[in-house]
## 1
Amino acid sequence: MAADTRAKAVTLDLRRRLLSSSCRLFFPEDPVKIIRGQGQYLYDEQGREYLDCINNVAHVGHCHPTVVQAAHEQNLVLNTNSRYLHDNIVDYAQRLSETLPEQLSVFYFLNSGSEANDLALRLARQYTGHQDVVVLDHAYHGHLSSLIDISPYKFRNLGGQKEWVHVAPLPDTYRGPYREDHPNPAEAYANEVKHVISSAQEKGRKIAAFFAESLPSVSGQIIPPAGYFSQVAEHIRRAGGLFVADEIQVGFGRIGKHFWAFQLEGEDFVPDIVTMGKSIGNGHPVACMATTQAVSRAFEATGVEYFNTFGGNPVSCAVGLAVLDVLKTEQLQAHATNVGSFLLEHLSQQKAKHPIIGDVRLKENYILLSTDGPGRNILKFKPPMCFSVDNAQHVVAKLDDILTDMEEKVRSCETLRIKHPPGKPDLAPPPPADPQHFNLYLLD
Ligand SMILES: Cc1ncc(COP(=O)(O)O)c(C=O)c1O
């Protein structure tokens, strides 16, 4: 293929000329040109192999043969919209329903997570007759105008919080106002939501929905205290609103113990709407919104057709079904539990060994890893589910090397610290010429 033989610099130049600079590249200082993927590995134009730790979309592995084959076979026969009867769409809805509480029994198919969240917002507004939304701070729910409005992660940079949007603090027991030593952080954070609702109501506002990722990931992979979401759901429902669980990043067996992250709250906890995307198509644009009969009926009662040209087409559904098959046959959920426990144990040892954790990137070691969170100081692992114990061992060893190296650099910064104004040594800005120093100031 001609495109694959193009020199990296030429591709970069073409991209700079033809694409908007708002479409950012990973590692902008030295972007990687990836031309092939397999399992948990990506390969650049020189054939160099990278371990992919930032891909929760290639859920069951890049170019998984079963998924590729399913798309190919269906493409050979038919691809069209969902206005014709076809088995794939009903089979896929049926299979998804088996993973969810029985109340979530109506499915809408779409092409992206953003579309799923936007539709969730429409349904919530239709069902409740209310307009307003409560969201968690630093959240991101998609790139459509409606979703930028409910994504503090984005709208804070755009300088505008809409009057119908209300922001509650992140239930972060590590850095937030109520920490692990608080007697009941779940209740304390849920009361914050209650307070946000009351303040909105005092201004005459009415709540349509609470949107949250079941494990807020864009905000820095927060694990809310147990019981938080159940209490929030009570407050929201009392205000007449719906609970929307955004599982676009964190769902689909990724957390190991459960198929959906909201299930961490216990069997009795059932959101009113669940949105899914990213991983469910293993790279093919597939998304879904599941809700209850009651919520769906209110939407249907408008008489306005829900039509989505590509959503739920036979190829997308064949892909979705194949991803579910692979998850099952390769027992990837149990595998995620094993590898996750291994990583947790070994990273905990690193925590004990290294007093610093910061903005670490491993690209130079052929490991693709990213950071997230308000301070961009959370090291986020989201590899394909076939990521192995050996891969985990390799990452931990590299991380150990990097942290050791960083600690040495911190020690060599001591002389610079002494020069900072008395009384405010840690607030002084880092020397601008050396970006390494800035990274060190991201430490918490
Ligand atoms: C939590 C969450 N919700 C929604 C979206 C939007 O999904 P998409 O990019 O498929 O539109 C994203 C994308 O990053 C996301 O992380």
## 2
Amino acid sequence: MKIPKTVKMYCKFCKEHTKHEVERVRKKKASELNLGQRRFRRATSGFGGFPRPKPEGREKPTKRVNLRYRCTKCKKASTPPSQRAKKLEIVEVR
Ligand SMILES: [Zn+2]
């Protein structure tokens, strides 16, 4: 999957469309206050163990990629929900 180095998209801080720089980042650790994390802690506590079947056998052919979009005007960054891709390339497009 090829992704342009700069994209024009909406900035929620500037409240207009501005140029954003794309950067690949590592997944951030889940906060213990997140609903999903709280639910997971509740499900794994006590008897019963893991709530889902153990992932065995094949490895998934695609991996999740986390991208960060930084506004060039206000320098603030936003991270939209991650996508799946086999291979990721950030390319320069003019
Ligand atoms: Zn901005």
